[in-house]
Amino acid sequence: MKNKKSQLKHSLALVILGLLSSSPLVFAANFDSLDHSQSNFEGLDQGTPESVPGKSSILNSLQHSEIDSKKERYFEVLNLLKQNKLDDAQNKIATLLKQSPNEPQFHNLQALLETLKKNPTGAQQSYQKAIDLDKNNLVAQLGLAKLALDAGDLNKTREHANKILAINDKLTSAYLILADVAHKQKNNDMVERILQSGHDKVKGNITQEMELVSVLGRFYVSQKQPEKLLTLADDMVKRHSGNTRALSVLAGAQIANNKQDLAEQTLKQIIKQETRDINHRLLLAKLMSNKPEKEKEVLQLLDETLKIDANNPQADVYKAAYFIKLKRNPEALAISEKIEKQFPKLAIGKLLKGDVFLSDKQWDKAIGQYQQVYKIEPNINVLFKITDIMQSQGKLPEAIALLDAESLKDNKNPALHFKLAILYQQQNNLNQAQLHYEAILSQQADNALALNNLAWLYSQQNNPKSLELAKKAHTLAPDAAAITDTYGYILLKQGQLKEALTVLEKATATAPKDNDMQFHLAQAHAANDDKQKAVEILENIVKSEQTFSEKSAAEKLLNQLKTN
Tens digits of per-residue pLDDT, 78-127? Predict the structure, then answer.
C-alpha cells in the first residue's frame, strides 16, 4: 500500500499578510464595526436654536455633555460584550434603551447582544430599528449584511453592502463583504475587481489601503499570482515613501515572490526606522535562518529583541528552536529551561524541551515532556508528536489506541481521522482506514486528500467507486502529482488505457524522481503495447539506488517484458 501525503508549504509572506480561518476573505467583525461607531454620535447637536439670544452656548454645552455621556455608556457596554459578560451587558442595554429609546447606537448594542446569544432574528430586528431611526446608520447595515451572509442569503448580503457604499463609498468593510459574496459564488474575477475597486477608492488613506491590500495579498497568494501583490506593494511604497506599514507589505510581497534578498533589505529598512520593533526582527531572523553564513546576524537579531522586551518569550522561543536546528542542543535545552522558569504557566518551555530530547533521540524523555504539554494545552500537533515517537519505537498498536481514545472525545476532527486512517493503512487494516476517510468526507466532501486516499483503498479492493472518487480528487487538485498518479493508475486498472497513459505522463512530469509513479507509467506503456518504452523506464528505476515501495513489482514486470 502506498500512502499519499501532501506537505503544505506556508510562505513566510503570510506571517505579514496574516492567515485566515476559513477563506481568503472574511467579513470585518461586529466588534470592529461598533468600535468605530463613535462618529454616529457626532452631529447630534445640529439644529441648535442659535436665534435664541443668550441660550445657544448653554444649550450647546448641555448637548455636548449628553453626547459624551452616551458615548461613555456605549463603550462601557461594548467592553462588557467583548468580555462576554452578557448578563451585565443586557441589564445596562435595557437601562440605556429605556432612557434613550430613539438612540440608534443603543439598538446596535442590543443587536450585537442578540448575535452573541445566537438569536439572529432578534439581532435583525434591533438592527432594523436602528435603521428606522437613522437610515444612514452604517453599523446597522453592516450588521444586517453579516447576518445575511451567515444565513447564506447572498442577494440580501449584496443589497446591504451596496446600500453601505451608497452612503460611504470608502468603507472597506462593504468591499470585503461584496468580495466574500463573489468568493462564495466561486467568481474569482469578480473578487479581484471588487477589491481593486475598493483599493482605488481608498488610495491615500494608509490604514484603509492596508486593510484591502492585505486581503488582496492573501487572495493573490492563494491564486498563485504573487506578482500582482508585488505590483500593489511597490505602488504603495512609492506613494507612502518611508511608511513602515507599506514597507511591511512590500517585504511580504517580496517573500511571496521568492525575492529573499530584497525582502531582507526591506526588513532591515523597517528595523532601522522602528528601533524597538520586535515582529520584523523575528521575521528577518526567520528569513535568514536557512543561510548558514547568516548565523551570527540571526543570533544578534534575537538578542536585540530580548533587550527590547525581556518579558516577551518569542525571541527566546525562536532562539531555542534555532539552536535545535543547528544541533546545538545543550544551549537549546538551557534556553528552554529558562523559558519554563520565567513563564511557568506556559507550556512552551516544556514543548521546546521535548523538541530537544526528540532531536537527541531520547524518545522516552521527549514523550514525557509532550505528555505534560498536552495536559496543559491539549493540542493535536503535540498528540501527533507523541504517536510519531511511538511509531519510531515500534509501538504502532499503542499509538493507534491513544488516537482512538482521543477520537472518542473529538469525533469531528478531520486531522485526527486522517492520522488514524494513515496508521491503520500502515497496519494493513484497510476497513478501519476506510471508515476514517469516510468520516472526513462526511464533514468535508471536497477534501481532495481524503478522496484520493479512499480511492486508492477502494482500488485495492477492486471497488468500482474508486474511479469516481479519484476523478473528483483530481478535479479538485489537478496539479498535485500524487493525486494525478492515483487517478491515472485507477484508469489503468479499469481498462481506460489511453487516458491512463496521458494522466500518468502528466503525474511523472510533475514529479519525475518518484519511482513509484514511474512504475505506474511503465505499466501504462506496457498496457498500450509500447514494450520498448516500458522496459526503458523500468530499467532506469530498477537500477536506481533509490528505494521505493513497488520496486519488487517493477523488477518482476521488467523480467516478464524481457522474457516475452
Answer: 889 888 899 999 999 999 999 999 999 999 999 999 999 999 999 999 99
Tell me which DSSP letter residue 378 carries. -
Closest C-alpha to 264, from 289, 241, 232, 234: 289
First vs last C-alpha separation in the chain: 28
Cα separation, 81 vs 29, whole angstroms: 13
Contact assessment for residue 182 and residue 198, using Cβ atoms and an 8 Å cutoff: no
Helical spans, DSSP H, in 461-514: 465-476, 481-493, 497-510
- Distance in angstroms (rounded) separating the CA atoms of residues 404 and 412: 13
Architecture per CATH, domain 316-378, reads as Alpha Horseshoe (1.25)
The CATH H-level superfamily of 225-312 is Tetratricopeptide repeat domain (1.25.40.10)
| Model confidence pLDDT, tens digit, residues 248-303 | 999 999 999 999 999 999 999 999 999 999 999 999 999 999 999 999 999 999 99
Ordered by start, the domain boundaries in the chain are: 225-312, 316-378
Residue 176 near residue 25 (C-beta atoms within 8 A): yes
Nearest to 453 by CA among 475, 433, 439: 433
Residue with cell 448578563: 87
Residue pair 323/306 in contact (Cβ under 8 Å)? The answer is no
